[in-house]
Design brief:
The complex is a heterodimer of chains A (about 180) and B (about 575). With about 180 residues, chain A is of the alpha+beta class. In chain A, about 30% of the residues lie in helices and about 40% in strands. Chain A has 2 domains: about 10-85, Alpha-Beta Plaits, CATH 3.30.70; about 95-165, ACT-like. Chain A, domain 2 (Alpha-Beta Plaits). In chain A, strands 5, 6, 7, 8 and 9 form a 5-stranded antiparallel beta sheet that branches. Classes of the chains: A alpha+beta (about 180), B alpha/beta (about 575).
Amino acid sequence: MNSNSHSSNQPTHHILSVLVQNRPGVLARVAGLFARRGYNIFSLAVAPTEDPMLSRLTIVVDVESAPLEQVVKQLFKLVDVVKISELDPRRSVERELLMATVRVPAGDRGQVVELTNIFEGKILAVGVEAITVSLDGSPDKLDDFEELLRGYGIVELQRTGRVALPKLDKEARLKAVKQGKAS
Amino acid sequence: MTQKITGAQALIKALELENVDTIFGLPGGCILPAYDPLLDSPIRHILVRHEQGAGHMAEGYAHVTGRPGVALVTSGPAATNMVTPLCDAYMDSIPMVCITGQVPTTAIGTDAFQECDTVGITRSVTKHNELIMAADDIPLLVRQAFHIATTGRPGPVLLDLPKDVLQNSMTWHWPSDEEVLDSLPGYKPVTKGHPRMIKEAARMILNSKQPVLYAGGGILKARAADALRELAELIDTPVVTTLMARGAFPDDHPLCLGMPGMHGNATAITAMQKSDLLITLGARFDDRITGKVATFAPDAKIIHVDIDPAEQGKVRRPDVPIVGDCRLVIEEIVKAIKDLLNAGEKQQDISAWKSRVSGWREQFPLYYASHEPGEALKPQYCLEQLRDGAPEGTILCAGVGQHQMWSSQYWKFNEPYTWVNSGGLGTMGFSVPAAIGAKVGRPDRTVWAVDGDGCFQMTAQELVTASVERIPIKVAILNNSYLGMVRQWQEMFYEERYSEVYLSPELPDFVKWAESMGCIGIRVESPEEVQPAIEKANSIDDRSVVVEFRVDAGEKVFPMVPAGSSNDDVLLHPDQNSRREFLR
C-alpha cells in the first residue's frame, strides 16, 4: 500500500498516536497545549482503548507549524499522557470513515450506487432525491471517492479523521498467531 | 480501621501529612468548609489582603526554602486573582500547591455565583491541575499534587475543590508512595543522565579552549550549587549566573562573571558570545539571555543539561543533550572528567581564554556616573549602600523593572537562595508579597524587598498582612516617579516620546502610606541621608520598614542588549563606549 505519494499524505503531516489516561479534561489539555504553543492539528480522533483506563488520540499534526520533536516533548509533559508513538505512514495502517449525502434524481441513483459498490462502500439511506453513503478505508481511498461523488453534488459530507496503528512486522504477526492459538 | 471524616478534614489532614507548616490564603464562600478544620490544625494560616498576594507569598516561601508554597483561596474571583502568581511560578519553575474552592458539583456549569472554570483558566499556567469530584479522592490527589509540584521540573499544581466535596464524608485512606506512582503512569521524570552523553560531555569539556559554564535557575532547583562549584574549580572555567541563578555560584568567587543577558555585564555577555563551549546547566536559552538567537554564541558547541526534555533543542540545538537532575548530572560529569584525567588525558590550556576574559572584566566593570554635589540621588548608589549595610545572609527580593536589574547587578550574592525575583513572567508587584513569604520561610534572615514606585503601588497592601501577622520585612522603594524601564525604552527607542509613564512626584505619600499600614516610613532625598536611613531600617526588627529613596529619574540600566539585537551589539554606558574595541 503506497499511500505516501498521495495528496492527502503530504510530507508536512505526521501521525501521532497518543495514549492518555481516560479522564475528564484530557482532550482539553491536549487541544489547549496545541493552541498555546501555536501548533496546528490537521485531524484528531479520540476513543477509549481495550483498557478502559486509557484512551487513544490519533493526531495528525501539521509539522510546518512547529518541529515535531517539540510537539512530542511538550505533549509528553502533560501528566495524563502515558505514551506517544509517531506512526510512519509507510509502517502503519490507517483508516478513516466518510459519510456523504449526495443529491441525485431517482433516475441517476444507480450510478452512485454502482460507484459506492466499486469502492466497497455502503448505502445508509435512500431518499427521493438524495442518497446517503458511507465508506471506510485508507484516507486516500476516501479522497478518491469524495472526488468522484462531488460530480453528483454533495449535500453534506463528514469524515472522522484518521485512526492508525503500527503495522505488524513479520515476527509480531507470527507471535500474534501463536498467542491466538494458545488461548 | 476505617474512619469517616469530611472532605475538608481530609484536606487539612493531608496537608499536615505533607508537612505543610504555612498556608497563605483568604477565605470565601465555597472554600469555607476547609477553613473550619484549619482552626484545629497546627498549620499556620496567613491571612492576606488580596489573593495575588497569597500566591506570591507562597512563591517567596518556596524560593528560599525549596519546599512547596501553599495557597488557599475561594472560587471565582479568588481563583482568577491567583492566575498571575500561578503563571509566575510556572515560568520560574517554582513548586507551589494552590487550592481553590469551587461551587458545589451540582451547580457546576450553571453560571452559579462566584463560579468560574478554574481548571480551564489555569490549565496553561500550571504544571498540572485537577477538579476533585469526590471526597474520597482528596488524599490521593493532594499527594499527587505535592509529588508533581516538587519533582522533575518543579511547578505549580492547582486543586479545585467543590464545596459539597469538602462537606461530604469520606473514608480516610492515606495512599502509599507506590499507590501515588501507580496512579500517575504518564509521569516519570528522568533524573539520571545518560552515561554515554555524560562521558561525551566530559571529553568535550577537556577539549574546549574557551569554555563557559552557563548556570541557570535549574542549579538552585536541583540544590546543585556545591556540585557546580566543584565542577567550575575542577576545570577552572568561568561561570555566568543568569537572573534566575544569582547566588548559585558566589559572586565573590574569582571564576564568577556574574549575570549575562539583556542587562548583564559586558564580560558575561561577551564571554558567552566568544565561547567555543557553553556548558549549559539548568538554563533554557531565554530570549533575554540570547539576544538575537541567530547570532548568539555562534562558535559555541552546546552541552545542555536540563531535567525538562522539552528544553533540549527548543531554542538552540545542543551537541550533547543530557536530560536529568542538574546535581546528579554535574556530579557524574565531575566523576567522568576525573576518570579521564586519571587515565592520562589532559585538559586543553585555557589560560589565554581566561586572560582575555580578565581583560574584559578590567575594562568593563559595572559603572554609573556618581552624583555631583546637589544632584539627584543615584539608584545604583542606594543599592550599593543597601548591599554594604545588609546583615550577613540577607535575602533580597525584587519587583520587575530597572530596580530589579540594578539589584541583580549591584548586590553580591554569595549564597544560594538569597535572591527572589520574578524572572520569566516579569510580574510587577512581586516584591512585597514575595518578601513576606520569604521571611515566613526564613524568619532567621533579614529580608529586603527592593521595589519601584510603580511596582509598590500594585501590591503594597500586603504590608498590612505583614504588620498584623508580625512578619517584619524591609522595603526599599527606588522612587523615580516613573515606570522606569518603560521610560528607558521610550527614551532610547521611541525618540524620547514619553507616553503614559509618568506616575506622580508627590502621590502617594509613601511614608504616610507605610505608617498607615503599621510600618515605619522613612524618606531619603539626599546622598547623606542614605546610610543613616539604611542603618535605622536594619536596626528595627519588630515591624516592617519602608524606605523611600527619591532617585534620579534619568538614570538608565546599562549595559543593555536591545530586544531583538545581537549580543555583539551590547550598548555600554556612554562613558565606557570609547573602550568598546576591547570587546572584539
